Each structure stands twice: as structure tokens, then as C-alpha cells.
């Protein structure tokens, strides 16, 4: 997860306790968030009945994100997300639903207007123009201008008009994007429960994309361009940070959700391969890594691997941090300890909390410690399942590294 832009969960399931209230119309819906510049960030969802309760599937690619903390009172609908500390406050009207999506920040909230219409299957246009180009493949994309430029890799699959894919950066990906090519224009969007993205651009030909505009949440904006390049790639994720000269080990002591102090020097971790996961409950790429890490831990814990999660929350309020980290723990059924560091994700604070590290480029950052307690590798970012082969390549590489470290005497 990059600091400048909170990167890139695509199908979200809402189970709604309807009580006496009128049920939502079943079937296809179109939802749209309106930015401060009057752009609409659209996404699709479907309402179904499930055992007396209603269920909503927000569709972005192939991911499912279940939400159950939803209530209705009269014509009001309240949807509280289990991650990212955000919620919808809506009212029914003749056209469907209208209200706000509210993101709770450390010191203030951000409210983005939202509306949703039933019986609508299209995402961007009801009758889009026939596509003039096919953008299928890998692209070298640049976001920003001047000193703020950031090189990324675009990965897209186009089937007729429909486009899915993502952008990969040195600190993670923009997760599952979905949209279309209409005429000579590209449109992509996603909503993951904590972040909303819209990408627009002009396709000049099969090899160049220009005039790109990126909208994030209520106010975030950027520009981008892309050139088709089958050899486009990012720097090695293991090369972006390291320990400071003279350091071989990582030392810290933070408390877990039960108030117990945990340190990699504890007897529990001696003679083990230890994975330290720097994360935050606000970070979508951290969610992807956590989903993988839970499976990884189940596979490798009996072989001599332990995992420690270090949570950097947006507030130093211990009670609030515990609440959001517990939501994360429960959501993914995390079996390894999550520690509340008491530091925020600001670069200087994260580095201050772990003085052996030269720097922390972004979230997540994963530190691999060998059986002697020495840091052997540090991996920045996480390319999740939306990145296809990049995700499977990471798993293969990471697990081979684990096997090699376990085999050492």
C-alpha cells in the first residue's frame, strides 16, 4: 500500500436484517459514489433473499467480502463495514437508495454522496459505443507529473467491451478493477468497502493510452498515461528496504490484543523461522496478504514457522485500535498474534518504532527472520490475487524461501 494513494475487495456480500421494514428489491442494482468534482464512481451489486434475510453481492471481478452488521429502521438502511471503519447511511426513495458512505478517520470523517438504482445491470453506460481498440495485455503506466511521477504496471484482460485487471505498484496493487472500452475511451472502477476508485482515459491506438484521470474517494485525483509493453516490470520487492548498517536482528516488544507483551526474542520464537508482518486494518493490500498469510501459517507452523503481525493504526487511541484490529482478526480468523504498536502509519513513526530498519516504504512490509534470529529478507508491498501470475509467482518464491530457511542447520 503506497502512502500517497491508498491502493487497491471486489464482491461484497451484505446480509440485511430487515425486521418489519420493507425489503429491498431483489435483483441487479447499480450503485454510484459522487466525488467532489462531480465524477461518479460506479459499481454493481445484486440483492437476493437468503433464509429470511437479504443478501447483497457487490461485484468487482471475482472477490467476495461478507458484511453482516446491517440494520433497517423504517425507510432507513444502515450498513456498517467489518473492515476499514466505514459505513453507509441510506434512505429508500422512489428511485432506490440515497445517502452517504462515511469513512471514519483518526480525527474526522469523510462523507461521500451515494445512490443506488434497482433493475440496473450496466456499470458505466446502458448502451456503450462499440470498442475501437483492445487493451488486453501488459502496460507500462505512469501516474502523476514532475517529481511526483510513479511508474506502475497495468495488467488488463478484455473480452468484447468488458475489461478487468489492475495496476501494480512497488507497494501493492489497485486490486480488482472492472469496466469497459467504449469507442476510444477506457473506464474502470471498483469499490472495496474502504476505498473507491475510478480510472478514465483515451485509447489512442493498441499501444498508447493518454489523458488518463484517476479519482479516489471524495477528493483524490491524479493523471496517468500508459504504453503497451509486454516486458514491463517493477523493481524487485526484496530490494526496496533493508536493515541499517551494523544491524542483523530486529528487536521490538509490543502488546497483543489480550495485553500480553510479545517480542521475537521470546522463547516461543527461538530456533524458528519468524515472519513479521507490518500491516494496518485500513490497508486493502494488507487484507490480501493477511488472507494468504493465514493459509501459509496453517501450512508451515507445524514445520517450525511463526508469524507476528504488527498493527499500525491511524489513531493512537488504544481502545479504537483494538476494535479495528479485532475486526481484522475475526474477519480472517487469524491464528497468530496481532500486536498494537501504538504508532501510526506515518513514515517517521513507523521507522521510529523499528529503529533497526533503514526505512519503511509502504504497507504491507514483510520481514523474514531465520532460525538464528537474523533478518534475511524484507519484502515491500503485496501483489494480491487480482494480479494473476504475479500473485502465484510470489507464493512460489516466498514458500521456496521458507523451505530453504527451514532446511538450514
TrEMBL record:
Domain (Thioredoxin): residue spans on this chain: 243-400
Pfam families, alphabetized: Redoxin
Keywords, ordered alphabetically: Cytochrome c-type biogenesis, Disulfide bond, Redox-active center
InterPro entries given in the database record: Redoxin (IPR013740), Thioredoxin-like_sf (IPR036249), Thioredoxin_domain (IPR013766), Thioredoxin_ResA/DsbE_sf (IPR050553)
Protein name listed in UniProt: TlpA family protein disulfide reductase
Origin organism lineage: Bacteria, Pseudomonadati, Bacteroidota, Sphingobacteriia, Sphingobacteriales
A GO term, aspect molecular function: oxidoreductase activity
Protein source organism: Mucilaginibacter limnophilus
Domain of life: Bacteria
Range of residues in the leader sequence: none
Amino acid at each position: 500500500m503506497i502512502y500517497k494513494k491508498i491502493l487497491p475487495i471486489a464482491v461484497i456480500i451484505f446480509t440485511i436484517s430487515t425486521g418489519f421494514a420493507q425489503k429491498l428489491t431483489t435483483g441487479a442494482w447499480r450503485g454510484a459514489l459522487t466525488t467532489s468534482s462531480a465524477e461518479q464512481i460506479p459499481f454493481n451489486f445484486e440483492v437476493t433473499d437468503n433464509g429470511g434475510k437479504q443478501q447483497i453481492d457487490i461485484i468487482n471481478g471475482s472477490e467476495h467480502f461478507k458484511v453482516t452488521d446491517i440494520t433497517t429502521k423504517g425507510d432507513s438502511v444502515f450498513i456498517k463495514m467489518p473492515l476499514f471503519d466505514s459505513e453507509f447511511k441510506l434512505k429508500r426513495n422512489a428511485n432506490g437508495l440515497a445517502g452517504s458512505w462515511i469513512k471514519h478517520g483518526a480525527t474526522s470523517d469523510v462523507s461521500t454522496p451515494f445512490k443506488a438504482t434497482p433493475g440496473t445491470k450496466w456499470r458505466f453506460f446502458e448502451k456503450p459505443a462499440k470498442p475501437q481498440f483492445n487493451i488486453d495485455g501488459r502496460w507500462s503506466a505512469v501516474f502523476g507529473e514532475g517529481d511526483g511521477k510513479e511508474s506502475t504496471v497495468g495488467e488488463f484482460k478484455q473480452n468484447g467491451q468488458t475489461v478487468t485487471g489492475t495496476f501494480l505498484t512497488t507497494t501493492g496493487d489497485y486490486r480488482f478493477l472492472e469496466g469497459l472500452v467504449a469507442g476510444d475511451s477506457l473506464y474502470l472502477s471498483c469499490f472495496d468497502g474502504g476505498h473507491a476508485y475510478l480510472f478514465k482515459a483515451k485509447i489512442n491506438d493498441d499501444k498508447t493510452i493518454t489523458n488518463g484521470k484517476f479519482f479516489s474517494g471524495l477528493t483524490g485525483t491524479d493523471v496517468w498515461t500508459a504504453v503497451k509493453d509486454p516486458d514491463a516490470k517493477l523493481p524487485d520487492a526484496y530490494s526496496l528496504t533493508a536493515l541499517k548498517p551494523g544491524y542483523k536482528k530486529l528487536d521490538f516488544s509490543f502488546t497483543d490484543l489480550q495485553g500480553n507483551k510479545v517480542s521475537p526474542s521470546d522463547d516461543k520464537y527461538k530456533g524458528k523461522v519468524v515472519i513479521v508482518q507490518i500491516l494496518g486494518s485500513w490497508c486493502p493490500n494488507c487484507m490480501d496478504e493477511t488472507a494468504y498469510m493465514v493459509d501459509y501459517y496453517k501450512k508451515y507452523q507445524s514445520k517450525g514457522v511463526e508469524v507476528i503481525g504488527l498493527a499500525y493504526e491511524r489513531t493512537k487511541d488504544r481502545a479504537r485500535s483494538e476494535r479495528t484490529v479485532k475486526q481484522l482478526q475475526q474477519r480472517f480468523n487469524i491464528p497468530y498474534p496481532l500486536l498494537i504498536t501504538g504508532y501510526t502509519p506515518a513514515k517517521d513513526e513507523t521507522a521510529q518504532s523499528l529503529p533497526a530498519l533503514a526505512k519503511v516504504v509502504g504497507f504491507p512490509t514483510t520481514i523474514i527472520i531465520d532460525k538464528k534470529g537474523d533478518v534475511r529478507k524484507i519484502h515491500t508491498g503485496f501483489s494480491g490475487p487480482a494480479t494473476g501470475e504475479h500473485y502465484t509467482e510470489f507464493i512460489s518464491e516466498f514458500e521456496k524461501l521458507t523451505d530453504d530457511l527451514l532446511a538450514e542447520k
